[in-house]
Amino acid sequence: MAKEGRETRNRQGRMSLGEHLVELRKRLIIAALGLVLGLVGGFFLVNPVWDLLRKPINDLKLQGREAVLTYSAITEGFDLRIQIALFIAVIITAPIWLYQIWAFLAPGLTRKEKLYGVGFLGAAVPLFLAGIFAAWMVLPNIVRLMSTFQPSEDAFFLQARLYVDFAVKLMLAVGVGFVMPVVLVMLNFVGIIRGKTILKSWRVAILIIVLFAALTTPAADLWSMFLLAAPMVLLYFIAVGIALIHDRRLDKRRAKEFEEYGIDMSEPDLSELDDEDSSASQNTKPRKASQDS
After folding, report:
1. Using CA atoms, how far apart are residues 99 and 97, in angstroms rounded to an integer?
2. What's the number of domains the chain is made of?
3. pTM of the predicted structure, to 2 decimals
4. Domain annotation covers residue 291
5. Do strands 156-159 and 67-70 pair parallel, antiparallel, or not at all (unpaired)?
6. Are 240 and 195 in contact (CB under 8 A)?
7. 30-50 core/surface letters (b: 16 or more CB in 10 A; e: else)
8. Is residue 285 assigned to a domain?
9. Residue 276 within any structural domain of the chain
């Protein structure tokens, strides 16, 4: 009987907790192997990427400011190369680890929802890269603004490891922020949240986006904050529009199906309500009579 039960669950596509954990371990191992391979490939791209990250500091030198990146430990140069290589690995292996996230959820999805997952991957990867590019565009403004708080006659010394750590965290945070509207669309397409619900929260969403942009940029750099917040707000409303269009098409399809079966969802069945009222009144009459007696 237990074997038949397991076979029935397998035919229905259900997995036990242990099977979920095994599947999660499998996806994590594949994602980790992808990151390791990306790390190896990233070592060959460290120098050009490091030149791009160093560009805001070189721009300060061209403006006549004494700006220098420093190394405070013997092994810091090697540690810095590993950090940059890992950052490159996260970017170039984004299709792999994003696919593993989707593949872990795929067994519980229908065929149509799996197609939505493919669309999610197709939109999430370029948006993630676009977010990284947007953060790299505002990075020089942040460095330039922060240097103005130092007296011009003083040297602007930056520890290389801390500078790269700030730049990498900024790019990854903005990259993830750009992917969030796609997550909202995905939740709408699988039926978890409706477009009207997303639209009703537009004030909260804009507030969260502005706070996110303010946390990832200096408080005094309003221009950089605007450059980050504006495309994220635009992506949010694009996601709302897509969700509303999808809900409208889905409602029309359901209404047509109800018409084919002769079901009118616009108003309740009054005959059933009358039957229920009459039965309720019949049940209450004997009770009242017994009370009078």
Report:
1. 5
2. 1
3. 0.69
4. no
5. parallel
6. yes
7. ebeebbeebbeebeeebeebb
8. no
9. no
